[in-house]
Design brief:
Layout lengths: L1 H14 L3 E3 L6 H18 L5 E4 L9 E5 L2 E11 L8 E4 H7 L5 E12 L5 E11 L8 E4 L5 E4 L10 H29 L3
Parallel strand pairs: 4-6
Antiparallel strand pairs: 1-7, 2-3, 3-4, 5-9, 6-7, 8-9
Length: 196
């Protein structure tokens, strides 16, 4: 775990205050892509102590994959424009996280970058860097949305918990069971509407 905490400090030091150029009038998604590229390029070309690999596909959990000794860290970058209203970003499919976390040596690390566009809208500055493992995000700031088999989403800025991976996964299972039961009730009502 020491490697992970060293990594989070390295990311904070590398990105806080960083300015990058963007196309004038760039929308939030394209700014997010540029910030993801910033983290990926740093991880692939500058970061030491890890073997780094780009995402294996567009649908990969990670923006960059890091390995060291016996651990794998899947790094996923999430961005937020501090001048825009908070939106509920999707974090990860609950089922994909459950499957990923069957390996106790694999971790999903979220790098939250808060940014502000310049007045001329041709650059952004990173104002905040917060790094959290999936199991460090308190369920008070998470919800499960009706997308696919259930999507873990942020309902507010993430708060940190230290209950540990095993207890966090127990909460994930409990929250998913509650979500599925609510979906079953909704679907039963919908089925009644379509019954002749």
């Amino acid at each position: 775990m020491k490697q992970i905490y060293t990594l989070t400090e390295t990311y904070r030091n590398a990105f806080l205050g960083e300015r990058i150029s963007i196309s004038s009038g760039a929308m939030q998604r394209s700014v997010g892509d540029e910030l993801e590229k910033l983290v990926e390029d740093f991880s692939l070309n500058t970061l030491t102590g890890f073997d780094a690999y780009p995402a294996s596909s567009k649908r990969s959990i990670e923006d960059v994959k890091l390995t060291s000794d016996d651990i794998t860290i899947l790094v996923d970058v999430k961005t937020e424009d501090v001048d825009a209203d908070f939106h509920m970003p999707n974090i990860i499919s609950a089922d994909r996280l459950r499957k990923t976390y069957t390996d106790p040596n694999t971790f999903v690390l979220y790098v939250f970058l808060k940014y502000r566009k310049s007045q001329s809208f041709n650059s952004v500055e990173v104002l905040g860097v917060e790094c959290m493992l999936a199991e460090e995000m308190d369920w008070s700031s998470l919800s499960i949305g009706n997308l696919g088999k259930g999507q873990i989403q942020l309902k507010s800025h993430p708060t940190r918990t230290n209950i540990g991976r095993e207890a966090w996964l127990v909460e994930l299972h409990s929250n998913m069971r509650t979500f599925i039961e609510k979906q079953q009730v909704k679907l039963a009502k919908e089925l009644d509407v379509w019954t002749c």
